[in-house]
Amino acid sequence: MGTESQEVAAFILAGGKSTRMGTDKAFITLDGRTLLARALDSARSVATDVQIVGDTEKFAAFGPVVEDIFRGCGPLGGIHAALRASRMNLNLILAVDLPFVSPQLLQYLVTRARNTPDALVTVPHSRGGWQPLCAVYRPQFADFAENALRKGRYKIDVLFDESRAEVIEEGDFESAGFPTNMFRNLNTPEELAEASQEPQVQK
Q1: Which pick of 23, 148, 192, 202 has the fewest CB atoms within 10 Å?
Q2: Contact 69, 60 (CB under 8 A)
């Protein structure tokens, strides 16, 4: 791992309620490994400082933990807490339930963020929607997030216009050779079972 990785922090969002899955998604297994272990390994490929956003009691055994400041506010609360805790200029946010995201993709995101210093967030727009839980944020984005959280506004993508987002379109990923299903997340037992049958799951 090069010196550039020392400029990057990575945060695994693992505090979701996992209602549709019926059990904590962080600890379900895919191809013999938990989603948390997979996410941590991928994040460590691009950052030396990797932390988990969630419940300290639940996750302290697996690495440093950051807890939400604004509790019960969904992923935006997790992003806000991560950025307030970070000492780095580039902060990768990765949801725990994105097992098809590769280390190569994360490096691509970090490189794009590094090359666009005026953008407070470098975010994919793929599969017809935003992917804010696999994106790179600068610390100043926390100010926009906190303002929204205090007003009870929890949608992340509405903040991108005012925070100077660098948007990576699906065509950019395709040109770089990344598969179209990389942002597919796992929300239900059926989706997990389907993913388990696929021959090429991201290691």
Answers
A1: 23
A2: no
Length of the chain: 203
Looking at the DSSP bridge assignments, the partners of residue 66 are 53
Per residue in 25-59, pLDDT tens? 899 988 899 999 999 999 999 999 999 999 999 99
Distance CA 12, CA 14 (A): 6
b/e per residue 13-24 (b: at least 16 CB within 10 A): bbbbebeebeeb
Tokens 């903040």 correspond to what residue? 159
The SS3 call for residue 121 is strand
pTM of the model: 0.91
In the chain, what are the domains? 3-196 (3.90.550.10)
Of 146, 131, 178, 175, residue with least CA distance to 70: 146
What single-letter amino acid sits at 83? L
What does the pLDDT look like over 99-145, one tens digit per residue? 999 999 999 999 999 999 999 999 999 877 999 999 999 999 999 99
List of residues 6+ apart from 201 with CB closer than 8 A:
30, 31, 99, 100, 195
DSSP H helix total and E strand total for the chain: 7, 10
